[in-house]
Amino acid sequence: MKLLITHSYLYKLDAKQWRFKQPYPPLGTILAAAVLRREGHQVVFFDTNLRDSPDEIIPVLQKETPDCVIIYDDGFNYLTKMCLTNMRDAAFRMAEESKKLGCTVIVSSSDAADHYGKYFEHGVDYVVKGEGEVTLTELIGSLANKADIRLLPGLVYTRDGEPVATSQRQVLRNLDDLPLPAWDLIDIDSYRKIWQKHHGYFSLNLATTRGCPFKCNWCAKPIYGNRYTSRSPQHVASEIEMLLTTYSPDHFWMSDDIFGLKPGWVQDFAEVVQGRQLKFKYKIQSRVDLLLQEDTLDALVRSGVETVWVGAESGAQKILDSMDKGTTVGQIYEATRLMKERGIKVGFFIQFGYLGETRDDIDATLKMILDLMPDEMGISISYPLPGTKFYEKVKDQLREKQNWSDSDDLAMMFQSTYSSDYYKKLHQYIHAVYRKHKGYASLRKLFKRPLRLNHRELRSGLATFYYIPTSFAQRLRLTELEHTST
To answer: N or C: which end of the chain has fewer CB within 10 A?
Structure first.
């Protein structure tokens, strides 16, 4: 069959992410494309990432006239888990235009798995639930042969106007059996130019694992679930070697929920990388408790790790326990100390607004941030996603708005301690105080060794004079909002 495969994330419809200028190709989408090509189908790819509008697919549809249009979101991109309505509307638009030309429309995404009824209203014929490669392959094969699809696991479709869900698809156990993603379908230079212009280097993404076995009760896992499967270190190294040889990236983003959880994997990976004499830098996501195990950090350094992001979430143990996080504030402090000792940059994910959070808990989180001063930080607001225990706790409080429009929305959708306005201002205040303290550190370096200060540190030091009054004004506004929302 002739297939057009695309996805529904557009960086330009998410102003916060587009401001960062760190676009990554849709890894899950081009992996699905590679699987379909291996089956002998003719695959046309339309990458929405850097487009201005989903309407740009229309001339491609008219030119290619595919049998099927597959909107296959990149399940390795955490932004797709958030079910942002800007991207949902983009998917609806592409589905409607595809249907006008008589195409069969298939969608695989976190949002479609959670809200398939909405997608059926916009011309979608089939929703793939869970891990999609095998389900999609079998579905396309059945459609090509006009075979019965009712017994295929992992599908939702309509019969007599009502949704019908088939049995759950079992997850893949040997990820090495999958082909490498169809990187040749990506306009790599368009990504490279953005990275080089704004950051001075070029980063590409890859994934070494699927799923996460931990039970944080606010984290949705609609695609890969709680089961954890891993590619072999040799398989990963082969992809890295191919990417380095073909596209010359300077850096990699390992987009796993948890990197290197399998015992001994990180150590084996370091040996393979060193054995093949591969030279690259990369960043990962991990957990503070895992980083304290054996020689994990040393192995990461040997293989080229540059930055480790951890879900610190809160400096209040009460909140971590309420989240079923399974980590302690003490572990956050210790893991951060050990990473900095080894020259590893540290990134913190911080979350405010969780149920029961008090002003004291917020202050404890700010104290932790200023005590540890991570190199990078991402702040979010608690966001209830279907399929989580957290969602079940607050679903009766949800109002008409149940999804953010983009990742900078930050609206509270349940009754927390403070109002949406308070948490939005808190987000700004924490960043301002953090940057003010980074500026202090840069100014101290300036006075100690003025000739060795780089441009970034100089800019950070000068910015201190902006963030001092800014953070003071924001603190006053926070106090006003605290009193009006309690």
So the answer is: C
CB 35 within 8 A of CB 133: yes
Please state, in angstroms and rounded to a whole number, the distance separating the CA atoms of residues 447 and 441.
Answer: 10
**CATH T-level fold of 2-165:** Rossmann fold (3.40.50)
Per-residue HEC secondary structure of 421-461 comes to: HHHHHHHHHHHHHHHHHHHHHHHHHHHHCHHHCCHHHHHHH
Could you tell me the two tokens for 57? 């697919």
Report the phi/psi class of residue 416: left, alpha or beta, with left for phi > 0 and alpha for psi in -120 to 50: beta
Cα separation, 404 vs 151, in Å, equals 35
Q: What are phi and psi of 437, to 5 degrees?
A: -70, -35
Give yes or no for residue 486 having a pLDDT over 70.
no
Q: Indicate the residue type of 45.
A: F
Q: What are phi and psi of 94, to 5 degrees?
A: -65, -35
Task: Tell me which residue has tokens 């001075």.
Answer: 200
- What's the pLDDT at 445? 82
The pLDDT of residue 453: 67
Decide if pLDDT at 359 tops 90.
Answer: yes
Distance, in Å, from the CA atom of 347 to the CA atom of 283, rounded to the nearest integer, reads 10
Question: 108: closest CA among 248, 229, 7?
Answer: 7
Q: Name the pairing type of β-strands 155-159 and 162-165.
A: antiparallel
Distances (CA, A) of 224 to 30, 213, 256, 437: 17, 10, 11, 39
CA 479 vs CA 426, 427, 476: distances in Å? 10, 14, 5
Task: Kindly report, residue by residue over 153-167, the tens digit of the pLDDT.
Answer: 999 999 999 999 999
User: What are the phi and psi torsion angles at 351 (to 5°)?
Assistant: -130, 125
Averaged pLDDT for residues 380-384: 95
pLDDT in tens, 9-19: 999 999 999 99
Residue 260 CA to residue 297 CA, distance in Å, equals 11
Number of neighbours of residue 451 by Cβ within 10 angstroms:
5
E-strand ranges in 73-148 read: 104-108, 126-128
With 90 as the cut, is the pLDDT of residue 400 above it?
Answer: no
Indicate the DSSP class of residue 304.
T
Q: Is-above-0.90 flag for pTM?
A: yes
> Of the candidates 291, 277, 289, 193, which has an alpha carbon nearest to the alpha carbon of residue 237?
277
**Among residues 360, 415, 357, 361, which one has the least CA distance to residue 384?**
415
pLDDT in tens, 116-132: 999 999 999 999 999 99
Pairing of β 68-72 and β 2-6: parallel
